[in-house]
Amino acid sequence: MPDNLATAARAETMTLRRPRLSDGTRMWQIACDSGVLDVNSSYAYLLWCRDFRNTSAVAELDGRVVGFVTGYIRSEAPDTVFIWQVAVDAAARGRGIGVAMLDRVLTRVRPFSVRFVETTITAQNSGSIAMFTSLARRHDTGIYCRPLLSADHFPDTHETEDLYTIGPIHKGGHR
Fold this sequence. Notes:
Its EC number is 2.3.1.178. By secondary structure, the protein is of the alpha+beta class.
């Protein structure tokens, strides 16, 4: 089954929407449980739901939040949405929820002349690399990688984060 049809079939029972303030706690829990994300304070997730809700998304299955995407439009690059975090509850993985949430965010920001997606990924995070590569393929556009933050930039023990840029995203949507 082609990528877009498989995602659509899996998304039938899913609700994708903007996060509400009441979702912040669940988003924080999902981030904590992921075991791979840098977990922000619970306060940060609550503010994200208030201040960046138009560039973020949550996924619900049977009324329970099972995933989220947090993003923002870069003030220095208003044609670029930076995706901060993508997380899906372990029990809901493998259903295309991450890519579906990313598509929802792109649908929302495209009228505002957003043409590029940026994110940072560590070299060892093959799942995220595959998800963003799939996003580029589905939108029939390029994906480019370059170093951004070396381990030396961080005050703690953090892996190097490479910058991935996907685009240009065309207004016509994805395949």
